């Protein structure tokens, strides 16, 4: 075995940092991209190879890792070892190589298995891929080979918790994040805080809706006094996430959601302000708001809006506040004297939302009526997750005085993965690739058993949900010399996500047929009655532009007859998964995939990353060259309506949501937005309001962060959720 310790590497004795930093120094007006290749090779030569534990044979490697509690034995024992050797030969024949220094650095720093003292590497990329393929295939040799093929060619990227933990003996959960709801009683609040502690401990971000809680000043039954509202609960949750941080390995992360018609909405937003009193200020907790259509109507008409206390609403309607259709019932709520309410100006609240987004990037926006209109599942979606892409129905629980359940509802765990658009478009069989990905994600949902939070365990058992997404849209467009936001880019996005939808439906139907099992409630869904498929039978989603027709010329495009057959198959045998698609931010893992994050434009042609321990690392945009340079415009110099248009094309095919971030400069470039002509070039609350309304009118379900690049070269709202970045 090699003996040089990682701890012995002195940053002054290696060359790869300096070589990488030279990318940012133009030579004769050109970006010296070759320096990154030199940095990559230097990193492998100076860091990886000297610190890699080697073994005389593959068998001895696995024996060592199992006997020393690095890998589980159970998943390995499901295969003949001769098959594992064949799998490795298959992977070796793929001749995988990292393309950039950042990709290799990220993998070995954050994903590669290391010795207990953190001084030696125990696996390379091929080893991690093999562990994933063997683990998620669950003993099925053909699935293991197919999955190895998808991951080694980087067509598929499992979510960070899955990719990192697959096969490890000492590991966290395989799922990415969780969603729980709290109802309006102390037992539920206590159980919710305990759930937040437990879920933060085992990994992943936690989303919690507080919309059901009575507002500050509301009466409390049998007690002289009044409720304290949602802000003290927010403080309790923030402290819980801070305390439960996986023994200091990561910061616990959570988001709280509140309906804009909740009486505490102003104090909820104020808790995130920089100048908020320390007694109410939340520093690390993320905020999101649930926005019904009625709010947009009231803002448009410059009317007053009424805020309704949840305890009164629940008393009248018999269900928690989250489950009442505010838009439909608004006039009834206003006129009902049994429901306590107060009045504010709708546009004043709209301005407060924009001010906070300017200052902090929060709150996330969930257009909750848009979400539920397109929801094919029986029930109501009431919230989202830490990155705003998970949208699934929930049912409330009833918790008794012993903190156990009189009625066990359903909450949510997120089982995520992502396609790499550039590489999946080069797949020899697009449909087979997607089916393999769905089967890998199905293993995660089938084997997720979060017993510390029974409502999540119950929801996952009934729904079998997954969330397959995509990364690398800007990379694909630039590589093919297509401008982001152009007619061709919209055409491509539409067709790509139509294909993801089609093939995930096919795969889910196949699995349901194999297992003779569907998700719970399938018979009450729009899949069962067939109405879900109407748009595909009434509208042709095939490529429209010559450019995109050429790109898809060798890829199967389903006809209306194919959709009709799929409809019949689904009605006959069902779907295994209640939900299938969701587009996460996938920022961190996109570097390992040598591609651009999610569906967003790049931020910089040469991105500067501040790594905590070593300083700055520079990452050139994928496929960057003199030819692709014009197609790589920064998100901060891009009209955000183009980004919204791209996401809207994808959203029509995605059953859940997408983490849509808006990027703006504090000083808006001249000519970018026509409404700025003749007015200040500074970003204002009006700019954000216009863009939010544009997104709403385009059918966008959620808006994640607002990121602002300030005049002093800093970014506001640029926090990166490490649990959901895929």
From TrEMBL:
Keyword Chloroplast among record annotations: no
Residue span, Ribonucleotide reductase large subunit domain: 563-585
InterPro entries in the record: NrdE_NrdA_C, RNR_1b_NrdE, RNR_lg_C, RNR_lsu_N, RNR_N, RNR_R1-su_N, Rrm1
Record-linked PROSITE patterns: RIBORED_LARGE
One record GO biological process: deoxyribonucleotide biosynthetic process
Keywords from the UniProt entry: Allosteric enzyme, ATP-binding, Deoxyribonucleotide synthesis, Disulfide bond, Nucleotide-binding, Oxidoreductase
A GO MF label: ATP binding
Key word Nucleotidyltransferase present: no
Any one GO cellular component localisation term in the record: ribonucleoside-diphosphate reductase complex
Reaction it catalyzes: a 2'-deoxyribonucleoside 5'-diphosphate + [thioredoxin]-disulfide + H2O = a ribonucleoside 5'-diphosphate + [thioredoxin]-dithiol
Enzyme Commission identifier(s): 1.17.4.1
Superkingdom, natural source: Bacteria
Task performed by this protein: Provides the precursors necessary for DNA synthesis. Catalyzes the biosynthesis of deoxyribonucleotides from the corresponding ribonucleotides.
Family per similarity comment: Belongs to the ribonucleoside diphosphate reductase large chain family.
Protein name per the record: Ribonucleoside-diphosphate reductase
